[in-house]
Amino acid sequence: MKVLVLDGVEEEGLAALRAESDIEVDVRNKLTEDELVDIIADYDGMIVRSATKVTARVLEQASKLKVVGRAGVGVDNIDVAAATDKGVLVVNAPDGNTIAAAEHTIAMMMSLARNIPQASNTLRSGKWDKKSFMGVELRDKVLGIIGLGRIGAAVAKRAQGLEMKVVAYDPYLTEEKAQMLGAQLLPLDEILKMADFITCHIPLTKDSKYILGEKAFSLMKPGVRVINCARGGVVDEEALYEAMQTGKVAGAALDVFEKEPNTDSPLFAFNNFIATPHLGASTSEAQLCVACDVSQELIAALHGEFVKNAVNIPSMSPKVMATVKPYLNLAEKMGKFCAQLIDGRVSKVEVTYSGDLANQEVAPITTTLIKGFLDTILQVKVNFVNAPILARNRGINVVQQQATGEGDYANLITVKAVSDREEISVAGTNFGKVDPRIVSVDGYHVDAIPEGHMLYVPHIDKPRIIGPVCNLIGAHNINISGMQVGRKIIGGKAVMLLNVDAPVPDETMPEIAKIDGVLSVRNVSI
């Protein structure tokens, strides 16, 4: 597989990619859209920073492309909707620049408080001017943080070290979590009225665009100082200009602008305005971290493994990830297993969660199960992005539900597939943390390891069935590594699950089916 790397991604961070024997890394300079269109069909993966534009036109020609990685947080330069339609994963590195961005925010705030850039420029011009640069202390000042995510939380932690009072606005955060971060959660209007310093740490969305606009500035206390190291467009620059012109805002510091590059903003006319050219993530440590992170994400994506930082599938907090990750492998295996048992045109896949999982965010597990299910029955490449779309387009109704009450297992996943011919039900759980097991097939209790090659043999519960089946398998010099038999009543229907070291030959399957009492036989490969 070939990976195209553009925009000067840190070379040391590509070491993990280069170490993969089945991945070839091609590093190039920034390419134009036309140049990228001409070559993109040769690549399975691509890594960019912010310079290269991954447009719908580029993606249309990307016949082999499975994943695009952004060595950084924002994916503004990638057409995520077009990538999703194409079934291409878009991944980023949201954690790698957290400290760099937080420290830059603190640096901007301290520079505002003590007029450091202005004083430095004056001194360099040959003037020793102390009187013009009277500053303010940060101690006991109120810092209003808009957005208490990774970077906002890191800023809050550092601000507390400066003895500031931290208040925050974040509609997606609980008060308990904010308290753990040492911040008081308040409505936005209250923060605007009381904060001495206001800093933004939110993505640019239709809801956050101009969150600091004309109305917000009108609510702020006189002498407030504003910092934005998040995204251009979060602050209305025209409204900020007016607020600075009236003196309402005592100083502002922007690392980002609505239109970049920006070298002629009207804000530059103010001596109490400082700016940097989008340097929030520009540390050698951060660039190495994001390169390492996105390389690991590409390796996982190219090998068909779960990717934790894909931006076009439901994101997971570290807490959710820690809870569901042990069940992703189980879910994919269950999907593959179930798909190979059912006959006919599947119209519904129902996934039920019992035990502790019933109270967790299980959507990623369901997506993983559907990926495994469709991977087995479709000719197209199925991944975590297009699995729900492919199911919907094929008329498969995916139902996710949580069971109530106590069961036999601490956690249990049950999948029921319905076709125009039959219904199949499979239940599975993990023994320990990462030991997946099939514990029920159509209500028959078993304890089978869903791995490698398996043989599924429904039969009548009577003597001289297991022996003949095993003899036929042994006749082909195929070793049986495990066997499970489940029944409900003596003499009724039963199921046999065999783990074998190689697939049972197709010509042997009819022979097994002819054994008196065998109802059917299926090869399963996981």
How does this model look, in words?
There is one protein chain. By secondary structure, the chain is of the alpha/beta class. It has helices spanning 15-19, 33-39, 56-60, 80-86, 98-114, 116-124, 150-161, 175-180, 188-194, 214-219, 237-246, 284-302, 318-341, 363-377, 387-393, 466-474, 509-513, and strands at 2-5, 24-27, 45-48, 67-70, 89-91, 142-146, 165-169, 184-185, 197-200, 224-228, 249-254, 273-275, 346-355, 397-402, 411-419, 423-431, 435-441, 444-448, 453-460, 480-487, 493-500, 522-525. A seven-stranded parallel sheet has the order 8-7-6-9-10-11-12, with helices on both faces. Strands 14-13-15-16-17-18 form a six-stranded mixed sheet. The longest helix is centred in the middle third of the chain and has 24 residues, at 318-341.
| Helix percentage range | 25-40%
- Runs with pLDDT <50, length 5+? none
Report on the biggest sheet.
Answer: 7 strands, parallel
Terminus-to-terminus distance: 23 Å
- Report the sheet-strand fraction: 15-25%
Overall pLDDT: 92
User: What Rg is obtained from the alpha carbons, in whole angstroms?
Assistant: 29 Å
Oligomeric nature of the chains:
single chain
Give the count of helical stretches: 17
Read across the widest sheet, the strand sequence of neighbours is 8-7-6-9-10-11-12
Q: Could you say which structural class the secondary elements and strand pairing correspond to?
A: alpha/beta
Please count the beta strands (DSSP E, at least 2 residues each): 22
